[in-house]
Amino acid sequence: MHFDFNEEQRQFADALKRWIGRDYGFEQRRAIIGSEAGTSAAAWATLVELGMTALPVPQAQGGFDGGALDLFVVMRELGRGLVVEPYLATVLGARFLVLAGADTAHAAALLERVAAGDLKLACALGERQSRHDLRDIATRAERDGAGWRLSGRKSAVVHGAEAGVLVVSARSGGAQRDETGISLFAVPADAPGLQLRGYRTLDGLRAAEVVLDGVRLPAEALLGAPDAGWDLLDAGADHGASLLCAEALGAMEALFDATLDYLKTRQQFGVPIGKFQVLQHRMADMYLHLEQARSMAMLAAVKLDTLGSADSAERRRVVSAAKYRVGQAARFVGQQAVQLHGGMGVTDELAAAHYFKRLSMIELTLGDRDHHLARFMAQPGFQLAA
């Protein structure tokens, strides 16, 4: 399988790398996450200027019609730089709009604003009781004349308080954990009855608890067909999981390089500690995990670009395999890096601690390792070895 990046993809990566190296260093990031807003308007403006917000949007709505591999390149660099702006949340929201039908007037208008950088999105999919099961939805959507009325709560909505529109999953029919009866809605952040309580997360990002208290929406707010949102939800979440794998890969690469530099400079008994064979073995193990994670993350991105919409079982299989293997590698690389840095590895002043926290949160987002291992095993054709 061909894994080389094309010229445009390399240009995107180089542009991001130069910007992060020049204007988004570790100290600048610490200042951003410590600010009241928790994000940087200047950094977001740069992402817009570089064309990153237009990348996932179809050409008809002013975008570049980028695929999963194009976004893989971007998310990998953002992972290296530990960028905290709501890019992933917006890209994932845009993906739901595209899957639901970018040619509809409402979705097209929202996507045009995303491409121009005027609109940030967030995805309110999880609830307190649901853990990693996106089918477990207690939030209700009821008919309200020609429109809808939403009531319920959504938890840990990444960048929910920073978004102008939230993609919300709600149950319009069926039992609480049925795949049928799920609908998706585009809910304006200023809709009457919508309450947002923002907070900072462990890894320096922002999230929000969302309360929908009889939020009334017009008919056009529905994404796709009523009661048939599970396929959209499942496919969109897989797209997001693939992007998380790419971000984790970039973070692991940066953390590996930082740890290697530390072993070359930190001295004990008059020699760099990297001279000690036992530490060299640990670095070799980290490298093996990193390379396997790289292969799986790239495979997931390539498969998402090449698989047809009908092959949902293969998409689930590949994405879950990647999310499991990348999560496994992220934990190992993160823990080893912290230990090799010694007590400094958990201090706020050292970048290693921030990479470790972000990797830990990525592993828990859109399904942890146990969830994706079980999902992988549930796909058709899986057989345990005798």
TrEMBL record:
Gene3D superfamilies reported in the protein's UniProt record: Acyl-CoA dehydrogenase/oxidase, N-terminal domain (1.10.540.10), Butyryl-CoA Dehydrogenase, subunit A, domain 2 (2.40.110.10), Butyryl-CoA Dehydrogenase, subunit A, domain 3 (1.20.140.10)
Keyword Oxidoreductase among UniProt keywords: yes
Domain called Acyl-CoA oxidase/dehydrogenase middle: residue spans: 122-213
Domain Acyl-CoA dehydrogenase/oxidase N-terminal residues, every copy: 6-117
Domain of life, per lineage: Bacteria
Record domain Acyl-CoA dehydrogenase/oxidase C-terminal: where: 228-373
Needed co-factor(s): FAD
Keywords from the named record: FAD, Flavoprotein, Oxidoreductase
Official protein name in the record: Acyl-CoA dehydrogenase family protein
Organism: Massilia hydrophila
Family membership: Belongs to the acyl-CoA dehydrogenase family.
Record carries keyword Nucleotidyltransferase: no
